[in-house]
Amino acid sequence: MSTIAVTAFLIVSVFYSYYQNQAKNNIVDVANLIEYEIEQSGNYDFINVQLDSMTRVTLLSDNATIIADSARRTAFDESNITFDEIKSMAQENSRPEIRKSDTSAQNTYYYAKLLDDGNILVASTKSQSILGVIGNVCVYILIIILFVVVCSIFISMAITRSILSPIEELGKNLDRPEKVKSYKELEPFVNALKEQNKKQKALDKQKKQFTANVSHELKTPLTSIAGYAELIETGIAKEPDIKPFAATIRKQALRLVTLSEDIIQLSQLEENDEKDIAFSDTDIYEIARRCVEALSINAQTKGVSMTLEGESTLIKGNPSLIEELIYNLCDNAIRYNKPDGSVNVKIESDDKKVKLSVTDTGIGIDKKYRERIFERFFRVDKSRSKATGGTGLGLAIVKHIAQIHDAQINVNSVLGEGTSISVLFDK
After folding, report:
1. Which pTM was predicted?
2. What tens digit of pLDDT does each residue of 361-405 get?
3. DSSP annotation of 65
4. Which of 104, 163, 291, 408 could form a disulfide with 424 if both were Cys (CB 3.0 to 4.6 A apart)?
5. SS3 67
6. Three-state DSSP state, 406
7. Residue 237 phi/psi, 5° resolution?
């Protein structure tokens, strides 16, 4: 409605300006034509004939006496212009002037011309003012506005239905958005929904696989514990066998504890919002030193030497998670190492990045398995992992901690020679 009103006002203003110029030009043409006729015939009686109701031609003497007038008046008695103004206009040969009437509903255009005989020829015409024109067209503008509003209601309802219909259909088919016919502008949303569905399906599949793997991993030690306990309970186990059986039960129980701890740790990392994890200036070298010190006895037991290189280096991170990451990398390097092997932990930095690398001289990783080593419960050597008490979750935990810290993980390995896993942090 506002747009129509403003547009109508602007159009009326433009056409009114055009009409003003036309009116001025017309009275100038009328005055010139009458002047020519007077000069050719020497007669001015024809001026007394009324041209039309809006245009008036008056021939005045030098003392304001009306010689001829198409309005048939005998004296110059205009209320909105004086004879002196008319005389000045004629002598200066100026353009037509506009004078407003008292009501402001009409304007009068005056043009005066000084003839060769000293008389003054005056041409005038009346027209509506801008306010009068707008007042006349207001009714039509209101009718147009009403018509447009009524049409807009129906058109907008139809457009709204066409816009909302695919959205409503999507609401009913969130799991199958590809079956809904949508328009171009809705395609990014549909594509995002498809991508989300794919991710959700992959996540559901991953959860099912995780549940199956957890059940399988728990079943083995529990079956072993139950079997050995039954042998002891029923008295089938002989006295010399009880101690080894108890040792096996203890070993399997510890494996369950370790597995449970890793599962809880992994679940917490996946479920916790990254915004809730506190980050601070963390000395990664000091944390690595503590991990090497804690694992040194375990390494010595397995005939593996450990070394640490670097210096005190700060990163933005969560100290406990960084410690978990380094501990798991070092523990894996020891677990899958060879007798008389070595593990080297190195901290390097430049102006922007800090690199943590854990290098071992162990069994190495076949190229075809390198992309899978961060999967849950994936083991390159299953028999060796179970023998050494590995849960298959260590590197999965490392991956999640690295993601939380926006760190990049790189793996370099040669089968039978060793593996180097590096994690690149921002300073």
Report:
1. 0.49
2. 998 888 888 778 887 766 665 554 555 555 667 788 889 889 888
3. B
4. 408
5. strand
6. coil
7. -70, 130
